[in-house]
Amino acid sequence: MAKANGGDLPFLVAGGGIGGLITAYALARKGFPVRVFEQAAGEFKELGAGIQLGPSIFRAIERVGLKAGMMDDAWVPPSIEMRDALSGERVTTIPLGEPFTARFGQPYAVTHRADIHGVYLRACQGNNLVSLENSRKVDDFVDKGDEVAIRLEGGEEVRGRALIGCDGMWSKVRSRIVGDGAPRVSGHIAYRAVLKREEVPDDLWRPDVVLWAGPKTHFVHYPLRRGTLYNLVAVFHSDRYVEGWNTVGDPEELFKRFNGQRPEVLRLLKRIETWRMWVLCDREPVKDWSKGRVTLLGDAAHPMLQYLAQGACMASEDAVALAEAVAASPHANPGAFKAYSGSAISAPGACS
Ligand SMILES: Cc1cc2nc3c(=O)[nH]c(=O)nc-3n(C[C@H](O)[C@H](O)[C@H](O)COP(=O)(O)OP(=O)(O)OC[C@H]3O[C@@H](n4cnc5c(N)ncnc54)[C@H](O)[C@@H]3O)c2cc1C
User: Are β-strands 276-282 and 245-248 bridged in parallel, bridged antiparallel, or unpaired?
Assistant: First the structure.
């Protein structure tokens, strides 16, 4: 049984996505009790499709013993290749695999969002200091100086030693800490889908991350889950949408945008029956996201467009950096939170 570290009250985490779960686990590993409040009903689960994982995430999660679990289901592509979506010409190739790992000390891999979430969820479920609570929406909070009280939807109040807002792009906690309104709509739309390996024609299947760059569009594909799945992401520019996250996309709109592109692109796009659509948003970076006993993490702190392929990686790095800062001064959470958000600003990849 893990031993509790300092004080009786738990850390309160708003949001049980990728950032919230790794935060809970990293803190619990240091001996702190944590309660995670997730608004979704049913069970803790992750939707979505594939994500790319740069070396920074592996450096971070190796420190909390989760790298091997993550690599079990991940795919390590031999290269990232960029092609012209009109001519088919190869624009550039970035070798990954061994040469990359030798240079950066960690691999470049791709995985399903559900797989990374699953690794973090199992780690939390195996630690008796973590309490995972569904259908629990955090509505508001009060920082009382020596503790924090949150109010859940329905009116219940819960006390904790501090609050960590891991509640994503539209974070309620952020609205009280930074107060910069709604996220910025980028005008870029992502359609994502995942096929089974056998649904991909052999001549179109590639072990690499392949990006087809077209006029105001791009299309990316790569294998997932030890090669048993195939991830497709189609992005185009459009001002038509103002908000939306993980809703069903309109294939007609997609084919209009990709009209005239290479047969390899169109044949793969046609394999999909149901696309999920994301209206991509971000925010202007801020210098600080901690105030007293409340801080932010992951997309709630620093959301970014998917072009950087770093949102989930940075949420994971944040969590490890936060737990280490808190463990270094367990009775001075406000100072530890400042040290954490300051280190994330001054040294991107603070776990390097
Ligand atoms: C198209 C696309 C491609 C991407 N590709 C990559 C990639 O290649 N590599 C990469 O690293 N990242 C990528 N990302 C980014 C990555 O998915 C996000 O950065 C990451 O999921 C952020 O995790 P999070 O836990 O901070 O937020 P979220 O995943 O948004 O989780 C927030 C959680 O909080 C819950 N919640 C919200 N409000 C409340 C509340 N009031 N009370 C309780 N619970 C609440 C939500 O239900 C959710 O479960 C991509 C994103 C998109 C859209």
Answer: antiparallel
Q: Which of 120, 191, 222, 230 is catalytic?
A: 222
Our mutation pick for probing the ligand 1 site, out of 167, 209, 275, 281, counting the most ligand atoms within 8 A of Cβ, is: 167
pLDDT digits (tens, 9 = 90+) for 255-293: 999 999 999 999 999 988 788 888 899 999 999 999 999
Residues with CB under 6 A from ligand 1: 14-20, 37-40, 51-52, 137-138, 166-169, 172, 190, 192, 278, 298-300, 306, 309-313, 315
Overall pTM > 0.90: yes
Closest CA to 150 of 168, 164, 132: 164
By the 10 Å C-beta count (0-12 exposed, 13-18 middle, 19+ buried), 65 is classed as exposed
What DSSP string runs through 252-313? Answer: HHHHHHTTT--HHHHHHHHT-S--EEEEEEE----S--EETTEEE-GGGT----GGG--HHH
Q: What is the mean pLDDT of residues 215-233?
A: 96
Q: Is 307 a catalytic residue?
A: no
* Per-residue pLDDT at 352: 30
* Among 330, 341, 325, 334, CA closest to 292: 334
Mean residue pLDDT of the chain comes to 91
Residues in a beta bridge with 333: none
pLDDT for residue 165 is more than 90:
yes
Contact 273, 188 (CB under 8 A): no
Q: Is the pLDDT of residue 63 over 90?
A: yes
pLDDT of 298: 98
